[in-house]
Structures are given as C-alpha cells and as structure tokens.
Amino acid sequence: MTSFVIAIDGPAAAGKGTLARRLARHYGLAFLDTGKLYRAVGLKLLLNNLLASDTLAAERAARSLRPEDLDMPGLRDEAVAEAASVVAAQPAVRAALLDFQKEFARKPPGGAKGAVLDGRDIGTVICPDAQAKLFVHASVEVRAQRRARELQDSGREAIYARVLQDMKDRDERDRSRGIAALKPAPDAFDLDTSDLDADEVFKRALTFIDQRNRAEA
Ligand code: CDP
Fold it and tell me: What is the per-residue pLDDT for 212?
C-alpha cells in the first residue's frame, strides 16, 4: 500500500507548521517538521563553537543526528534559524538528511497510513510524488509580525525590525541557493495566508486535499 503524503512548503512563519499539525491530526497521519533537522545541525555547531559555514563539521553533525536531537532546547532560537539556513545550503548536509525524510514519508512511524512533511523542498525534491502539495506563503511583513509575537510569547526577546531583516536575509538565502531552493512545485496549491486566520487556512487546505482525493479515487 502506498503511503498518503501531504507536502507543505513555504518560507518562514507562513503558517506551515500550524497547518501541517492540524492536517496530520485530521487525517490520522504522522508529522515531520523537516526544518527541525536543519535547526538541529545548526544548533550542534553553535554549541560546539563552530561556524555554520564549516562544511565538514556541518556534514559530520548531519550524519550523526539522532531522533532525540530534534527535541534539543534552543531549537526555536533565531540564531539557530540563521545557522540552519546556512547549513541547509550545503549539498553534503542535504544529502545526509535525505534518506531519513524519504523513509519517513514512505514508511511513516507508528503504523500511520501516511505523513505530512513541511519544509522548503518537500514537493520538489523529497516527495515529488506526494498526493497533495501546498505552497503556503504570506508577505514578509506579516510573517515577521507573527514570528516576533511567537518569540515574545515564548519569553524570548524580539524586536520587530530585527526579526524582519533576519527574515528577509533568510528568505533570500533559501530562494537563491543552488540546491533545493525554496520554490513552489508546479502542481502545488498556492495558499497566501497574509489575510487569513489559521481556521480559514485549514478549511481551504482541506477543500483542496479532498478534491485531490476524489480525483484520485
Ligand atoms: O520555522 P521556520 O519556518 O522559521 O524555519 P524552519 O522550517 O524551521 O527552517 C529553518 C531553515 O532550515 C530554513 O530557513 C531553511 O534554510 C532550512 N530548511 C530547508 O532548507 N529545507 C527544509 N525542508 C526545511 C528547512
């Protein structure tokens, strides 16, 4: 039996994670936030006082990643997001993380009948055959506001202007890199969440996925 896969891609703080979690719960699917893999590699380097641009150290960190590393405290820090996007541009790091992601989609843990994966290259590289692909985005100002609020709510310091600039830099790095650049798959459903709340985003995604399911049945 083939696994039912929903691929969600898009830039930072566009609402991918919230949507992915809700879809996974709704359809009874496993969920993988693939950004955590790159964040964990970035964090390991920072903890060892190594630069994210140190390609050999980054590859080593990616190859030695263990499932419990995805629960490390500090993973959501902005400095870690920055390091994540630097290591994510390195082909050896992406190669080291490829099989785990593909395997998660093909054979989801816990006997789930499928999986939701969110990231930057799920619909284009990791799961090009996913049954449903969504590209979730929003204006950079809206995303920076959401991220600043998220950081403040979790007790971290966040200055809007700084968060906005960091997000612009990271968007640029994610979109312009030579490997697995952030872009919508040609058959992805385009979901601009700038003026939508989480319930409306979820509703629109469900409508799209259910249509896809009916078309495939
Ligand atoms: O949570 P947020 O949207 O801020 O970022 P994330 O999804 O945790 O990803 C952090 C960084 O990892 C991104 O800026 C990307 O550079 C990289 N990433 C990637 O290259 N490919 C993925 N599938 C997921 C994340």
Answer: 86
Nearest to 60 by CA among 35, 89, 98, 97: 97
Closest CA to 30 of 109, 90, 98: 109
Sheet holding 4-9, edge to edge: 30-33, 114-119, 4-9, 132-137, 189-192
Q: How confident is the model at residue 99 (pLDDT cuts 50, 70, 90)?
A: very high
Which of 78, 70, 79 minimizes the C-alpha distance to 49?
79
pTM flag (> 0.85) = yes
Q: To test ligand 1's pocket by mutation, which of 120, 136, 154 has the most ligand atoms within 8 angstroms of CB?
A: 120
* pLDDT, averaged across the chain: 95
Average pLDDT over residues 59-67: 96
To test the pocket of ligand 1, the residue of 72, 85, 170 to mutate (highest count of ligand atoms within 8 Å of its CB) is 85
